[in-house]
Design a protein that fits this description.
This protein has about 850 residues and is α+β, with helices and mostly antiparallel strands. About 15% of the residues lie in helices and about 25% in strands.
Length: about 850
């Protein structure tokens, strides 16, 4: 823990913006002749002039109301606050006056009670307000939780009617909760700013009985930096023009400036109706607010402050009506105190609750004076049967929300309850879910995480002094890192990592509340590592509504099993088709390998798993020093494939990189395929010698990947080309052309030459169809015509599928009798079967002999 006491910060201590061009021009009320009134647009926005007019025309007398400003103090000599101050206190130094040395408290006081109609400065909202300055915050706008509590308690004990708190802390404090309850019991209204981080509502605004005020834009919209959550009651303008230290006037912004606007409205209200309780005031503010988003919600609460409506609205006994049916269920906060009424024994009231997370919504229902009522609650569970809770003795019902979705619940009086109107008060609270890794509060209960590159854990602190332990078993050395993040400012995360059996280490707690903690890269050895996460905002942290995310990353640290292989004479001899893995200890490290080739072969070297941010340098040597080939991998690629035609011999491979890496191993694999006639796929083929003979004569060719594809289909263009080359056919003037064998076709000349001699023919539609396969019958006829072979009738061998009248029968039997062709063991020739490249090469080779 970084500190022994909580701190709290004035919400909205934003540097005052300059006066140029901001918030210009509002219509001044008749009662205000203050020269800067036209800069106070927020007064018109919240209906303050209309409220003044209602008081004036109604002939009503305002009683004085004391508003305690617990803050940085107040400028006691400011001319626009002269005569508006009552005796206050300096909590930080009882011997000193509560003089403001920051300016924040003075700005708050001016919004509420600056003299109106005095021809000077600005107009405060409540001309009946008397400001009690309580200095509980120092010059920097930072103070202690204890001073905040003392300031509130002093204000209550010295007769304040309202306490405005434009400040806050993210920690739930039982100490402050007791003081807030004390103020409520004494009839003092507490009003607080929600905060300006765009996240969780700060305390004391987050306590249910404190009026929590968020910020509104100039166009009555939620201000993005205003803190939000289930505790928000209403919003008020974010920008104000108000009093500053030294008798000045400044623009200020933040929820700090919204809260005093509500305090000013309440001061006017209590000046007219001093008998109202804090609960009455909260109901009036909520019912009088200008709804912005169809009812209560976590960002705008019940809506925008309307000071005129606060004074003129007649409070309804049940602001939620009509809500007698499920489809009329009214959105209600899960952390609040709100009123309702059963108009009769038959009346039922429906409410809708939106939990911020998975968990449980707690509900108590009592009379307005806190006594039990004969009430039951029925939770609608969709298709499942409704769940009923007896609330008659004031106990709390907990409504489960396992998925964090909206809950609809109905309140009703129990059978036998007295008839007639029955007012009631609902108290709600929210309990976040317990994460699935519990129980893991001790190291021996640590939840075992799988050993993998990344683990992501989402958890909660759902009980008092909750701390969560995790463990991971590492089977190799490497680098471990952990990052702990939270989605709420109410958690100050702390991260702790220790190896089993090691002495305790220092936790990672460099940042403050709401900010992530990061361990950095930790060199680790095989073993079990324990990771603890906890909230260190207090000595004994209470449950927190919020989640944390723990991300643990592990990178193995690999070693090179083939070291030392830094020189050619240390080269590791590679076996074919085996992957060898290695690392580089430095940019100067070299890894040498040796390969042996027993006959001319196509050798392929595959290098894989190259880090994205590294270069790999490959060099092939015919001896330890004579370089044959070199290449560098393109940056950002993870693999290389090198192909070489190598004669028999011993070769050396050197691998290098531009920077060391040990958290990833590269792989290198050596493959070899013997070359026959320059091809890797005919070495053991039955047609090898025929193919070799034709290759040597330049009659047939293979493909760019060192394949001849002997069993591949022979196309019409290939057959024409093989024949033209075999018999040295040249184009002639009488060459026939085909529309699908154009000048840019690779076989145009050979097809034309063979067609001119009648060796090949096209189709009736005039096309040649060069990519169509050649049948065995077509192959036979083409070869016969090219070689001048005469046909003959079957004499000895005959095939069951080649009748004497078959169009190719005479040529087939001529070649079979001459030994150039043969059929299949089943007695067929399969004349319509596809001819292969090997079959045609063998036939041509035989004819050329």
């Amino acid at each position: 823990m970084k500190r022994t006491f909580a701190t709290w910060i004035a919400a909205g201590l934003v540097t005052a913006v300059t006066a140029a061009g901001l918030l210009v021009g509002g219509a001044a009320a008749a009662a205000a002749n203050d020269p800067h009134y036209d800069k106070q647009r927020y007064l018109e926005q919240t209906g303050v002039p209309a409220a003044w007019e209602a008081i004036r025309t109604g002939g009503r007398t305002l009683q004085d109301v004391t508003v305690a400003v617990v803050d940085t103090g107040v400028d006691l000599k400011h001319p626009d606050l002269a005569g508006r101050l009552v005796e206050g206190a300096n909590i930080l130094d009882s011997k000193q006056a509560p003089q403001d040395d920051n300016g924040h408290g003075t700005a708050v006081a001016g919004v509420i009670a600056a003299l109106t109609g005095n021809g000077e400065g600005i107009a405060g909202i409540a001309p009946n307000a008397r400001i009690m300055p309580i200095k509980a915050v120092g010059m920097r706008g930072v103070g202690e939780e204890e001073h905040l509590g003392q300031g509130i308690r002093h204000a209550v004990d010295q007769g304040a009617d309202i306490v405005v708190l434009s400040l806050g802390l993210h920690l739930y404090s039982p100490y402050l909760a007791e003081i807030v309850a004390y103020a409520e019991s004494k009839g003092v209204v507490l009003i607080a700013a929600t905060g300006n981080e765009g996240k969780t509502v700060m305390y004391p605004a987050a306590y249910p009985t404190v009026v929590a005020v968020g910020g509104a834009s100039l166009t009555n919209e939620y201000k993005a930096l205003s803190n939000f959550g289930p505790e928000v009651d209403l919003i008020a303008p974010w920008f104000v023009y108000t009093t500053g230290n030294g008798g000045t006037y400044i623009y200020k912004e933040g929820t700090s400036m919204a809260a005093p606007q509500v305090a000013g409205a309440v001061a006017l209200l209590l000046g007219l109706e001093p008998e109202l309780t804090p609960g009455d005031v909260r109901e009036r503010l909520r019912q009088a607010a200008l709804p912005l988003d169809g009812g209560w919600n976590a960002r705008t609460g019940y809506g925008l402050l309307r000071t005129d409506a606060v004074l003129t609205t007649r409070t309804k006994p049940d602001m939620h009506e009509p809500n007698d049916r499920k489809d009329q269920a009214k959105p209600t906060s899960v952390v609040t105190v709100v009123r309702g009424e059963f108009a009769s024994r038959q009346d039922v009231d429906w409410f809708a609750f939106d939990p911020p997370y998975q968990g449980e919504v707690g509900i108590r229902v009592k009379s307005l004076d806190g006594k039990p009522l004969p009430v039951e609650l029925v939770l609608d569970q969709g298709r499942a049967a409704p769940l009923a809770f007896d609330l008659s003795d004031g106990q709390e019902a907990r409504l489960p929300s396992p998925d964090g979705e909206r809950l609809n619940a109905m309140l009703r009086l129990q059978a036998g309850a007295a008839d007639g109107a029955t007012p009631y008060r609902i108290e709600t609270d929210f309990y976040i879910y317990s994460d699935p890794y519990e129980p893991n509060d001790k190291a021996y209960q640590a939840y075992r995480l799988p050993t993998k590159a990344t683990n992501v854990v989402e958890g909660t602190f759902s009980k008092i002094d909750d701390q969560d332990w995790y463990s991971i078993k590492l089977d190799a050395p490497g680098t471990l890192s952990a990052r702990l993040e939270t989605d709420t400012w109410r958690i100050d995360p702390e991260l702790y990592i220790v190896r089993e059996g090691d002495a305790p280490s220092k936790p990672f707690d460099e940042n403050g509340e709401g900010l992530p903690e990061f361990s950095g890269d930790i060199d680790v050895e095989p073993g079990i590592y324990y990771i603890r996460v906890r909230n260190v905002k207090a000595m004994f942290p209470l449950p927190v509504v919020g989640e944390y995310t723990l991300t643990i990353e592990f990178e193995k640290k690999f070693f090179d099993d083939f070291e030392p292989n830094d020189r050619s004479y240390q080269a590791t001899t590679m076996a074919p088709d085996r992957t060898y893995r290695g690392v580089f200890d430095s940019a100067k490290d070299e890894d040498w390998f040796q390969i042996r080739v027993s006959r001319k072969s196509l050798v392929t070297i595959d290098i894989t798993d190259i880090p994205l941010d590294r270069y790999m340098y490959y060099t092939l040597f015919t001896s330890g020093t004579q370089q044959k080939y070199g290449r560098a991998s393109p940056f950002g690629t993870t693999s290389m494939k090198l192909t070489h035609e190598l004669e028999a011999g011993v070769y050396y491979i050197r691998l290098m990189t531009d920077a060391a890496y040990q958290n990833q191993q590269y792989g290198v694999t050596f493959r070899r395929a013997p070359l026959a006639a320059g091809f890797t796929d005919i070495d053991e083929h039955w047609a090898r010698e025929s193919i070799r003979e034709l290759v040597d004569k330049g009659i047939v060719k293979g493909y760019d990947d060192y394949r001849f594809d002997p069993n591949g289909t022979l196309t019409r263009a290939e057959a024409a080309t093989f024949i033209a080359r075999a018999y040295s056919l040249k184009p002639s003037g009488a060459a026939r052309t085909f529309p699908d064998v154009t000048r840019d076709h690779w076989a145009m000349e050979t097809v034309a030459s063979a067609a001119a001699r009648g060796i090949i023919q096209g189709y009736p539609d005039g096309t040649f169809r060069p990519n169509d396969p050649v049948t065995r019958a077509e192959m036979t006829v083409m070869a016969a015509l090219a070689s001048g072979q005469s046909g003959k009738s079957a004499t000895g061998t005959s095939f069951t599928d080649v009748s004497p009248d078959h169009w190719a029968a005479s040529y087939i039997y001529a070649f079979v009798d001459g030994g150039q062709l043969q059929g299949f063991k089943d007695g067929t020739f399969r004349p319509n079967g596809r001819a292969t490249r090997a079959e045609f090469a063998t036939l041509l080779a035989g004819l050329l002999q």
